[in-house]
Amino acid sequence: NTIAESWSLLKEVKLHYIEAGEKRHPLVIMLHGFPDCWISWHYQIPALAKHFRVIAIDMKGFGDSDKPRSKSSYEVKKLAEEFNDLIATLGCRRCIIIGHDIGALFGWFIVHTYPEIVEKFVAISAPHPNLYWSTVPSTSEFNSRWVQFCQLPELPEMKALDGDLVILNNVYTHLVKNSGSQEYLDAYRYAFARKEDWIGAINYFRTFPYWRLNINESYQVSTLLIAGNKDKSVLIESIIQSTDFVEKFSLKVINNASHFPHQEQPDEVNKVLLNFLVGKCALFHLPVDYNKRLQMEVMD
Description:
Belongs to the AB hydrolase superfamily. Epoxide hydrolase family. By secondary structure, the protein is α/β, with parallel strands linked by helices. It has 14 helices and eight strands.
């Protein structure tokens, strides 16, 4: 599968993404966390591209996507509208969302506000937003003190650059411990080397903690929750509790993984993802003409 780099120009923002897989296959959108970019999914993209059209986005404010400075650009409602526009721009009516951390929090918002465009949803290391902010453990690098600190102008962005980006070493301990992962650490250092690389990213902490979903009933989108059994950034109890908001769900705890199970135990996570998304039937939602063509070939 070839991997291509592309941009999507929406009304007010240009989003950068990596695309793999065939356009006739069901669309999977991958949403990274903080501080991260599309590279987060380097183990998943080739595995998923065998079955899906995979698009791994640099979320607004990250990587090579536009990085508007204003806090209002990162209001949840605005981001959700832009996501809806993105799906239409890609020529699709529906998609599968796979999110991690802040990306999964955003995915929860999409599933509740635009359920008609979501085929299935996967949330990795992220409880439901109505639970997330009140249950972040103090052991998290981005705990309630961090959220309060982020409300200050300029200072959090300056702090992030401290000590040769020591914040990245604190977040990506699994990469620091693995000498074979140096190229990925270097890529993250490059992606967050300048103050302007942190402004949009930190703006998520200036908007997301103050949004809650007004929910009358659980939603119907089939959902998979994935958590690492050694994650110090979220409480496993809050992920279990998140199933209260979902009608149809699966929950998978990944052993020997902390906050980045998709990077720490990629083979296990890929197996879980494919089992949930493809299952025993690899044709779960292929275009009609493709299904017809297959039936004709079988009949021949």
